[in-house]
# Entry
Amino acid sequence: MTDSQGLPRRGRAAEPGQDIDLAVLLASVARGDQRAFEEVYDRIAGPVLGMVRGVVRDLAQSEEVMQEVLLELWRTASRFEAGRGSALSWVMTMAHRRAVDRVRSEQRAAEREMRAASAQVDYDDVTEAVEATLDRERVRHCLRSLTDLQRESVTLAYYGSYTYSEVAGLLGVALGTVKTRMRDGLIRLRDCLGVER
Amino acid sequence: MRRGQTELHTLAGAYALDAVSDADRARFEQHLAQCEACVQEIRGLREATARLGAAAAVRPRAGLKEQALRAAAQTRQLPPVTPRTPQVRRGLAASPAVTAASRLWQRPSLPRLATALAAVSLAVAVTMGALAMGAQRHLGRDQAQAHRIAAVLTAPDTIMLTARVTTGGTATVLESRLRHSLVFTAAGLRRLPAAKRYELWLMGPGGTRPAGMLPQSRAGMVGPMIVSGVAAGDRVGLTVEPTGGSGRPTAAPVVMLGPGS
# Structure
């Protein structure tokens, strides 16, 4: 199957079957299986660290957050419910929330101002061994399919850890507009990525 | 004027991006508790944000992994959430109580699905473990099977049945009518002599059809076996047959499972 751009449609995980593997591994982790945890680490630490670094910026702090997330995963694996979304989404949601909490609670407003200029993550900047090249291309392609305002709203919120009212202030648009753009932008991203719902 | 539901609903994007204040979050989560459509939407949006995040993957430096494993080894894990409803209906579908209950099975509650997953996942994990240990040539097939199993586990109409096997052990079936499929697992089955194997059957109005030979048990678990082509009214039976399998059962079933019609 192809979309209008001729790129292959992808499943909800980076590779078909990978997310199921991850869900199965989590079930083993929930029973205290340390080898399964090791495998979960191998699969998820890279995506978590990459995302957290996009949000937190400081590498040492990002590593700290990543380690906290992995430990939280170990602790709460029994709470993962396969019927409620993919395992990747569960992990990344938890990780993003932590990264955002870290930025909001530990960095002062002044520092956040400084980061405003560089809030849009530059994927080209992240040159270390990339695990999911194809998926990155896909995401980059899908981000381009958003309108400028949608893309800015989404990335400022996701990687800049700004609230929607802060984003509205930064972009100089009305609150309602930003909320709508965030939602529309994510819906378009979701449909472009072909994630299952 | 109070902000209405529609306006609250537009917060979905900001919420999925964690771009809300604590007060907004609380307000939206209250709304989520009453809005199944919103829960579905958030789920989809979070799949998108997860991919957005994962696409920035980098390789963590060496040494962090050992730290994480050490920390995990010293950290106590949370138990699963205790189910609110009875998870498992024991016994045969022929019993009137169970048949009556089967009419009530509509959407499984999420905790029940979680329990279902837990029941099957050990066997899946064993399968995947063997896979990881180098059964590379089976990779495609096993992944396809994992896919089909997940499709049953996550179907909106999945039901779960367990029953004692008369010769020892327990059999569990997860069935989705929607997917015309079921997943069969068993634990603690009596060991059979070398010339015998357990064989699975679908038995229903459409007749009795062979549904596959059970693989050898691993770590006391058998399966999961995925069975497709399940029709309304089908029940699952297990018999002991010669190693090569039989075209039709040659012995009385040691267990029968099914929601009836």
In short: Residues 34-56 of chain A form the longest helix (23 residues).
